[in-house]
Structures are given as structure tokens and as C-alpha cells.
Design brief:
Distance between the termini: 23 Å
Oligomer: single chain
Shape: elongated
Strand content: 15-25%
Number of strands: 5
Structural class: alpha/beta
Order of helices and strands: HEHEHEEHE
Strand order of the largest sheet: 1-2-5
Radius of gyration: 17 Å
Length: 130
């Protein structure tokens, strides 16, 4: 972070389009404060950039049965929440199974990010939420 945010500013000042990928978005304890601090850092970095071309991709934490097994094999003591029972089962474009946050959680996350990105980074175009 200490290198990436200043680099984003340098690129933007030089006229390059810049983008943010916020991932994984997770509803951890005090998540609003932590993500607000991140958005505030980015807002300060792009403050005063003329003709700012800023986009964002907002990606919540999700997993497939295969990715879950790989991660548990690599990190058997992980505390990353990957309990299939606490997630909603979805099917991807080609039928692959993935586990996402339940509708209520996704709605809460999305509405917060929509509001806060717009307030802190008004020039930012959100490309997608997933």
C-alpha cells in the first residue's frame, strides 16, 4: 500500500488512466472503518489530479469447492471463512459452482461501497461489482 497508492498518483498525474481493484471485500469486524480508510488514502492520492481517469473493480470474497481445497491444503490453519453452509451457492456462466455471501450481506456491502466510493471518489467509474 505504501508504494502502490503514491504510484497511482504519479501515473494519474502523468495522464494515465488508473484503476483500483478492491479485493477481496469481506465483512470482517469493523470492515466499514478499514475500507473507509483505504478509500480515504486513494482519495487523498488523486486529489487535484486534472482530468482524472479512475475506474474500480469491486470484488467480494468467493470460492469454489476446488479453490477451497487448494487453499486448505496450502494453509491448513487458515482462519479465512470458507464454510459452505454460511454462503449462498451460485453457478457461474459455464455452470461452475461458487460460494458467495448471502443476499443480505451482499446487499449491505454493495450499498455501502456504492455510497462511499461515490462520496470519496466522485470521478471514479465502478466497472463492476461481483
Amino acid at each position: 500500500m505504501k508504494d502502490r497508492v503514491p504510484a497511482l498518483r504519479r501515473l494519474a498525474l502523468d495522464g494515465y488512466p488508473v484503476g483500483l481493484t478492491l479485493a477481496p471485500i469481506m465483512p470482517l469486524p469493523d470492515w466499514r472503518r478499514h475500507y473507509a480508510e483505504l478509500l480515504d488514502l486513494v482519495a487523498a492520492a488523486v486529489d487535484g489530479v486534472p482530468a482524472l481517469d479512475l475506474t474500480a473493480e469491486l470484488i467480494t470474497h468467493r470460492f469454489t469447492p476446488g479453490s477451497r481445497e487448494v487453499l486448505l491444503g496450502w494453509y491448513p490453519r487458515t482462519r479465512l471463512a470458507m464454510d459452505e453452509a454460511s454462503r449462498t451457492r451460485r453457478h457461474g456462466r459455464f455452470g461452475a459452482v461458487k460460494y458467495v455471501y448471502p443476499r443480505e450481506t451482499m446487499s449491505e456491502l454493495r450499498s455501502w461501497f456504492d455510497r462511499e466510493v461515490a462520496a470519496r471518489l466522485p470521478a471514479c467509474q465502478v466497472l463492476y461489482w461481483t
